């Protein structure tokens, strides 16, 4: 698990967003546009805004995947989805601080590498992996204001073992494996 540090004002606004799943026909482009508008506006006087993207930025379902559907897919290759994500994030890049890896990106990492780390590098922000701690430190005083414990989401940790001791051991092993992403 990574521990990251973010310097903030004491009246900062931190936006957490994710599951955009660009490439899927069901993606809410208007929802992203509304977030971008909110980040860029100065209506409430907040000057210090930060964006953390929580993973599943791209759909990552390719044509050779059994779940692929021409009706549901709008952008058909992983690289094209990545490039589209960059084009959508670019207008608010100055607010982007941290990017996490979601289960969609994790699923294709064996064939395409760590797309989330690549996105973070291209967008010049910190990469949090699947799970991270963010220490938010005052710009003025240099002291810790609060911590964010960020993760894409775990789903459920389950085991089919009949023995309760083995079931607990299996679930702890699954948790350790997820925390290492």
Notes on the protein architecture:
The chain has 181 residues and is an alpha/beta fold. The protein has helices at 29-40, 78-89, 103-107, 109-112, 115-123, 164-179, and strands at 2-8, 13-17, 49-53, 96-100, 126-129, 131-138, 144-151. It is 32% helix and 23% strand. The protein contains 6 helices and 7 strands, in the order ββαβαβαααβββα. The longest helix has 16 residues, at 164-179. Strands 2-3-4-5 form a 4-stranded parallel β-sheet, covered by helices on one side. Strands 1-6-7 form a 3-stranded mixed β-sheet, with no helix packed on it. The model has no long low-confidence stretch (mean pLDDT 89). β6 and β7 (144-151) form a beta hairpin.
């Amino acid at each position: 698990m990574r521990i990251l540090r973010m310097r903030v004002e004491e009246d900062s606004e931190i936006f957490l967003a994710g599951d955009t799943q660009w490439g899927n026909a069901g993606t809410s482009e208007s929802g992203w546009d509304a977030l971008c508008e909110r980040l860029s506006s100065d209506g409430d006087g907040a000057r210090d805004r930060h964006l953390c993207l929580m993973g599943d930025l791209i759909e990552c379902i390719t044509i050779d995947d059994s779940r692929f559907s021409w009706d549901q897919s709008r952008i058909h290759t992983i690289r094209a989805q990545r490039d589209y994500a960059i084009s959508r994030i670019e207008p608010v890049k100055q607010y982007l601080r941290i990017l996490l890896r979601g289960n969609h990106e994790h699923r294709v990492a064996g064939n395409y590498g760590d797309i989330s780390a690549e996105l973070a590098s291209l967008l010049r922000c910190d990469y949090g992996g699947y799970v991270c701690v963010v220490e938010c430190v005052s710009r003025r005083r240099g002291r810790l204001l609060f911590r964010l414990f960020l993760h894409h989401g775990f789903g459920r940790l389950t085991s089919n073992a009949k023995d309760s001791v083995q079931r607990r051991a299996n679930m702890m092993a699954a948790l350790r494996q997820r925390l290492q992403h």
